[in-house]
Amino acid sequence: MAENKEFKVIGTRPIRHDGIDKVTGRAAYGADIHFPDMLHGKVLRSPYAHARISSIDVSKAASHPAIKCVITSEDLPLVEDTITELGETVINLKHLSDNILASDKALYKGHPVAAVAATDPYAAEEALDMIEVDYEILEPVLDVRQAMEPDAPVLHESLKTESIGKKGDQSQNVASHSQMKHGDLETGFAAADVIVERDFSTATIHQGYIETHNATAQYNEDGELTVWCSTQGAFGVRDQLSKILKMPVSKIKVVPMEIGGGFGGKVQVYIKPIAALLAMKTRKPVKMTMTRTEVFEGTGPAPGSYIRVKLGADTTGKITAAEAHLVFEAGAYPGSAVGAGSLCIFAPYKIDNLQIDGYDVVLNKPKSSAYRAPGAPNACFASECVIDEICQKLDMDPIEFRLINGAKEGDRRCDGPIYPKIGYLETVEAAQNHHHYAESIDIKPNGKLRGRGVASGFWMNGGGRSSVTINVNTDGRINLIEGSTDIGGTRASIAMQAAEVLGISAEDVMPAVGDTDSVGYTGVTGGSRTTFATGIAAINAAEDIRAQMIGVAAKHWELRPSDVRFEDGIFLAQKNGDALRMTFKEVAAAGGPLVGSVTASPGGAGNGFATHIVDLEVDPETGKVDILRYTAIQDVGRAIHPSYAEGQVEGGVAQGVGWALSEGYLYNDEGHMTNASFLDYRMPTSYDLPSIETVLVEVPNPGHPYGVRGAGEVPLVPPLAAIANAVSRAIGVRMTELPMSPDRVLQAMGSI
Question: Which class in CATH covers the domain with range 33-138+210-261+266-298?
Answer without folding.
Answer: alpha beta
